[in-house]
């Protein structure tokens, strides 16, 4: 290990460096503006696929231009927006299932703040600390109204859940003491509880990457999603690399079919790919005949 010794470079310096490495740049001022506004380090992730082997030499393939890099960046941006909008639908549906199924089956409208709802007192204690933090700092009108109107220390589950992050709600689901409730929630989506946990974790991590403007199109997942053993809806016949975004999109498509059978995710993806025909779908984990799978028809 050695200290980081690379000097700071201006946008103009970086354009000169890229040209020296073989990247075709016809309008240097335009390239400088993009680098200044997007950042060289962020853009460099979209340059990597265009490098010659060995990539450690940082030499570009013949004929690669700055516009090729920008197109890949734009594609990834549009893909992130698409995924984020679709994952939102899934998260809202799962959120409502957790809240309402538990309230109905337990007969406790305050189940989120009831110690009997959970497997352990330690988990309940840590959960209440998180809830108190969110509840006390919330400025939502419905929370202010509840505090002014009712004498209960906390709102019922369907109100309180609205200020809790999705990750916290999945922790509540994971730690429910009544296994019948966990099974009933997962059954709403045609699966078993462990698979629901795994797939929601995958979608949440993907959504977080989209929120933070991170690269998605060819990213390798840090966590391997579970493979379904028994689900009620259509699935893929050939299991691809489960670390790639294609598998995440398969999970997303499965949930959307359960929530809204007439969803148009397949067409949205095809339209996006048609706008960027130069994109290597195999780098995303897509098989050649992906749209012939039962899941995508």
Sheet with the most strands? none
Helix % is 40-55%
Distance between the termini: 51 Å
Question: SS-based structural class?
Answer: mainly alpha
What overall geometry do the principal axes of the alpha carbons give? globular
H/E order of the elements? HHHHHHHHHHHH
Number of helices: 12
Number of strands: 0
Q: What are the segments in which pLDDT stays under 50 over at least 5 consecutive residues?
A: none
Rg, rounded, reads 24 Å
State mean pLDDT (0 to 100 scale): 96
Give the quaternary arrangement of the chains. Answer: single chain
> Approximately what portion of the residues adopt beta-strand conformation?
under 5%
Task: Describe this protein's structure.
The protein has 12 helices and no strands. The chain is mostly helical. The model has no long low-confidence stretch (mean pLDDT 96).
Quickly describe the structure:
The protein has 297 residues and is mostly helical. The chain has helices spanning 11-20, 28-38, 40-47, 66-106, 121-137, 141-149, 157-160, 166-174, 179-187, 193-211, 245-259, 265-275. 55% of the residues lie in helices and 0% in strands.
Key words describing this protein structure:
297 residues; mainly alpha; 12 helices; 0% strand; globular
Q: What's the structural blueprint in terms of helices and strands?
A:
Elements: H1 11-20, H2 28-38, H3 40-47, H4 66-106, H5 121-137, H6 141-149, H7 157-160, H8 166-174, H9 179-187, H10 193-211, H11 245-259, H12 265-275
Helix pairs in contact: 1-2, 4-9, 4-10, 4-11, 4-12, 8-10, 10-11
């Amino acid at each position: 290990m050695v200290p980081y010794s690379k000097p700071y470079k201006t946008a103009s310096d970086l354009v000169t460096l890229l040209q020296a490495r073989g990247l075709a740049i016809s309008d240097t001022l335009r390239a400088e503006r993009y680098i200044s506004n997007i950042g060289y380090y962020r853009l460099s992730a979209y340059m990597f696929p265009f490098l010659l082997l060995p990539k450690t030499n940082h030499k570009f393939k013949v004929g690669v231009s700055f516009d090729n890099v920008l197109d890949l960046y734009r594609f990834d941006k549009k893909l992130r927006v698409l995924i984020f909008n679709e994952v939102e639908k899934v998260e809202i549906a799962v959120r409502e299932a957790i809240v309402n199924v538990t309230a109905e089956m337990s007969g406790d409208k305050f189940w989120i703040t009831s110690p009997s709802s959970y497997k352990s007192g330690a988990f309940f204690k840590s959960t209440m600390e998180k809830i108190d933090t969110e509840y006390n700092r919330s400025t939502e009108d419905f929370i202010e109204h509840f505090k002014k109107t009712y004498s209960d220390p906390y709102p019922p589950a369907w109100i309180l859940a609205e200020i809790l992050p999705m990750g916290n709600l999945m922790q509540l689901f994971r730690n429910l003491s009544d296994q019948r409730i966990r099974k009933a929630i997962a059954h709403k989506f045609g699966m078993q509880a462990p698979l629901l946990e795994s797939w929601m974790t995958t979608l949440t991590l993907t959504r977080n990457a989209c929120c933070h403007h991170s690269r998605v199109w060819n990213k390798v997942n840090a966590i391997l999603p579970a493979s379904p053993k028994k689900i009620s809806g259509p699935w893929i016949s050939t299991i691809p690399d489960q670390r790639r975004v294609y598998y995440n999109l398969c999970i997303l498509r499965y949930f959307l079919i359960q929530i809204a059978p007439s969803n148009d995710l397949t067409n949205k993806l095809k339209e996006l790919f048609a706008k960027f025909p130069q994109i290597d779908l195999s780098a995303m984990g897509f098989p050649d005949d992906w749209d012939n799978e039962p899941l995508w028809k």
